[in-house]
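We treat protein structure as text, and this decision shapes the records that our systems exchange. Because each token names a local backbone shape, the row as a whole describes the fold. For reference, a complete record is included directly beneath this paragraph.
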Amino acid sequence: MQKKFYEVTNEWLMIKKLAVKYSTYIKYENVILKHLNIKFNDLFINDINEEIIMTYFHELLGSNNYSINTLKVLRYVLKSILDYAQIKYNIPSINFNFIKLKKTNKIAKVLTAKESRALETYCFQHQKNYSVAILLSLYGGFRLGEVAGLKWEDIDFQNGLIHVNRTIERLKTTDNQNKTQLMVLEPKTHTSKRIVPIPDFVLKFLKIYYQNQDDVESNHYVYTGSCKIPDPRNIQYHYNKICKLLNFQSHYHSLRHTYATNCVMNNIDVKSLSEMLGHSSVSITLELYVHSSLEFKKDQINKLKIPSHIAELCVPR
């Protein structure tokens, strides 16, 4: 009895559900339901060959509706399903090496100096929960879900350190595909669970904010001031509102990029920066953040001083 694609896919998903984070499982499930099933759902697994797959990816590329990153995820999931089918149902091996996707040039979007100054000024002038979140991401490099997941017990005021122990995401529930709920999860990767030092002036602002809270306990979330799980979308909403007020547009993740770029431009050790960002390797940090501003590069290159024997030749006669 031949198996259809959707049957094999369901088996693969059941295995993945045991092996990966829930958020990753949901991502794979979405890829299958919204993309792969449209093309392959009712095909018998044995009938899927290299020609069908090549045609499929050519169609996706020709539509211009898919980013390279999305196509890479599609390729990974489809290949993994077919690799499973090869082992379980002895279908012929399919070579995916013929699907060449160009490498994406990751460009980290950062705030300009003017935007940073305006945002910092606004946040330091407003003792609000969203000001705290924004400043922590701008001076600690925290992702949106990470800053939402911070509890007061994660903050070491004495040593100026913040422990990243969790992240919060809004994900689909397994019992209702159209319903989502907030979930407290482990950080993105094992290296994302980290300890981040915070500048003294930010720590001072955070301490004043903490002392002004009523009935706050160590297990309360910093953002909500209670055990209520913060919604990252609420932080994003306030950030967008402030940016609009200050006459610029930006995505919240740009705060993390701005933090990293500022660290590079202030000659902070790249290995330390990589650990503070929670990257799995220094190469990731270098790939994203070595491209500093032209003004900074000019300052750096002007550190090269003219040799004394050349300087004499440059004196006007």
In short: The mean pLDDT is 89. The first strand starts at residue 155 and ends at 156. The chain has 14 helices and five strands.
